Amino acid sequence: MGAADKAKNKAEELRGKAKEKVGKATDDKGKQNEGKADQAKSNLKDAGEKVKDAFRH
Question: Which segments of the chain are extended strands (E)?
Answer without folding.
Answer: none
